[in-house]
Design brief:
The chain is mainly α and 99 residues long. It has five helices and no strands. Helix 3 runs antiparallel to helix 4. The two termini are 18 Å apart.
């Protein structure tokens, strides 16, 4: 069997139960929808996978660069603070420990 020592999902760390597909997954998916994005049908990871989170943050930054609308800067920093920075140190430590 395969054990994941450093799960790359925000809900695993943020929701406090070390489970995936928690409330954080749903919150992130709703944010994607709010900004007109949806995960591809071929995407087999939850919306709170680190790859998806970083791609969305990059999209917010790029949209600000293109449009210059301050709402995207605020959305970017709120998103990063709530859904990336809160768990990234613990994730990094696990990656370091088990690499």
């Amino acid at each position: 069997s395969f054990k994941m020592y450093a799960p790359p999902y925000a809900s695993y760390y943020v929701d406090g139960e070390h489970q995936v597909y928690g409330p954080t997954t749903m919150e992130v998916a709703q944010l994607y929808e709010q900004f007109g994005l949806e995960l591809s049908a071929s995407e087999h990871e939850p919306a709170d996978h680190i790859r998806c989170l970083l791609a969305f943050a990059a999209r917010l930054a790029a949209t600000y660069e293109q449009r210059g609308q301050e709402e995207f800067v605020e959305a970017y920093w709120d998103f990063v603070a709530l859904y990336i920075l809160r768990w990234l140190p613990e994730f990094k430590q696990l990656v370091d420990d088990y690499a």
